[in-house]
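Summary of Year 1 activities. Much of the first year was spent building the evaluation harness for sequence design. The harness presents a backbone, in tokenized form, and records the residue chosen at every position. We chose the following record to illustrate the format because it has been used consistently in internal testing since the harness was completed.
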């Protein structure tokens, strides 16, 4: 027998999902009740948790929202899924997403778009007022916002947790790269992919991070234990008196380059009020410069696409993925089998990025595109290191490793260039995914992804007006980011922002 509150959440998920498309699959209420009776009594005992459909699970299919994997069920659980179960969480559904994580709107899904439930009213897909949930983790954000789970796992390669969190008015954390295990997560871009966490309250994000953060020998990108030990040392070196109500002496930088021409004025009143609230709690605000920021988006798409072309090469209809049956008879046509399987199995956005990535890795383009993008990435990392007070815990201490006494502890900026776009803009047949705007939506998120830093999008009110047809009353998020390993401090300030808007 399930508790009444949990029963209501499970029933609501089944009832509302045909309209929201937040989930790609759901456990039956009977299976959830069985899991509840068997769940360990850990810190998440009985908590309904949804998992993005990019993490392997034994109880539900793992599809990455792609036709290529529509019939796949994993024989094992991803490490983060296993740790959730050990903490007592009830994983009752897999959430919708852009196919293989490639997109910012959740329109590139084999299961159709997840709708944003967080505005003034919940529209239908065919309505002109329906809004996207954001991507690629749109299903996770929509499920949390609609109360269909308390916590959701997401993933974040270039903003895929923080952008939908901002659009749907929930908290979304991209932890420091390597802090959470990626074993059992279908790879998009391995040097960028992170496990993300979403919840309505920052406190639930913190609890989940504590459950999931541990070294995993199965993941070659897992941060080593000595770096994790240095995180604790850095936490101790910062003021232990900072709380959500007292931030005296905390230095927060506002990057000048993040206020792009594309930034909508509708998000600025909420951002300014957030800054005023932090100042009232004792935080010291200052302008900082990250001059390479305008180069980040281009570098990101070169690097992410190049890594995707390598990671997704395994899905050829022979080793992995759906096979084009009309091509499978003659071994002499193996190349045709690969081509047909990938053409039929991958959606248009995935095909586009794979072609871009393959070209970037080609002999004639490698130096001009891939290597240049790597140089930009290193430049961005060095710029972030130069503005933070503490050095990165990833760097072993030495005589040359010193604190920057004039630096900041965190940075803050709007999470997105505007509120959630309409699913189908009025008076046009185009969608946010079919224009160049779909690639600029993550402009404020990819710099810290390239640097591997933690970032938290936290709700900061709603949009103020109707500029550019964006509408009034849709969620606005602000993003707090810090040095690698400063996740706890980022969450602490996130709670301060959250408290200011209650």
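For this record, the design step produced the sequence shown next.
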């Amino acid at each position: 027998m399930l508790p009444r509150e949990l029963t209501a959440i499970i029933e609501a998920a089944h009832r509302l999902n045909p309209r929201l498309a937040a989930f790609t699959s759901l456990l039956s209420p009977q299976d959830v009740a069985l899991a509840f009776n068997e769940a360990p009594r850990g810190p998440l005992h009985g908590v309904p948790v949804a998992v993005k459909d990019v993490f392997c699970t034994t109880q539900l299919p793992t599809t990455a929202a792609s036709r290529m994997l529509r019939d796949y069920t994993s024989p094992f659980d991803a490490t983060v899924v296993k740790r959730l179960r050990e903490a007592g969480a009830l994983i009752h559904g897999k959430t919708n997403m852009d196919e293989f994580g490639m997109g910012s709107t959740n329109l590139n899904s084999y299961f159709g778009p997840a709708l944003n439930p967080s505005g003034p009213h919940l529209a239908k897909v065919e309505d002109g007022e329906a809004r996207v949930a954001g991507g690629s983790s749109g299903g996770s954000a929509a499920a949390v916002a609609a109360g269909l789970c308390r916590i959701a796992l997401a993933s974040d390669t270039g903003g895929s947790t923080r952008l939908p969190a901002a659009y749907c008015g929930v908290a979304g954390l991209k932890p420091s790269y390597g802090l959470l295990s990626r074993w059992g997560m279908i790879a998009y871009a391995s040097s960028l992919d992170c496990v993300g966490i979403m919840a309505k309250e920052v406190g639930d994000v913190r609890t989940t991070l504590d459950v999931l953060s541990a070294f995993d020998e199965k993941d070659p990108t897992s941060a080593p234990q000595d770096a994790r030990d240095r995180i604790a040392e850095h936490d101790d070196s910062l003021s232990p008196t900072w709380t959500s109500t007292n931030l005296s002496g905390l230095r927060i930088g506002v990057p000048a380059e993040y206020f792009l021409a594309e930034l909508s004025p509708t998000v600025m009143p909420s951002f300014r009020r957030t800054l005023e609230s932090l100042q009232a709690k004792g935080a010291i605000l200052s302008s900082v410069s990250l001059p390479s920021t305008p180069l980040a988006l281009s570098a990101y798409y070169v690097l992410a696409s190049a890594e995707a072309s390598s990671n997704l090469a395994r899905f050829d209809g022979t080793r992995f993925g759906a096979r084009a049956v009309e091509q499978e008879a003659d071994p002499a046509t193996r190349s045709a089998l690969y081509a047909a399987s990938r053409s039929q199995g991958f959606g248009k956005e995935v095909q586009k990025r794979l072609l871009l990535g393959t070209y970037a890795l080609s002999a004639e383009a490698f130096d001009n595109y891939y290597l240049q993008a790597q140089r930009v990435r290193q430049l961005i990392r060095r710029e972030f290191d130069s503005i933070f007070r503490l050095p990165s815990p990833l760097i072993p201490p030495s005589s040359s490793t010193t604190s920057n006494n004039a630096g900041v502890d965190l940075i803050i900026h709007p999470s997105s260039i505007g509120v959630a776009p309409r699913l189908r803009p009025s008076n046009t047949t185009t969608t946010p995914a079919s224009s160049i705007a779909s690639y600029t939506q993550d402009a404020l998120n990819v710099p810290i992804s390239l640097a591997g830093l933690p970032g938290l999008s936290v709700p900061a009110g709603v949009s103020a007006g109707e500029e550019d047809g964006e509408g009034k009353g849709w969620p606005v998020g602000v993003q707090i980011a810090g040095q690698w390993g400063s996740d706890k401090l980022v969450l602490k300030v996130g709670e301060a922002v959250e408290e200011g808007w209650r």
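The first helix runs from residue 4 to 20. Quantitative recovery figures across the full test set are reported in Table 2.
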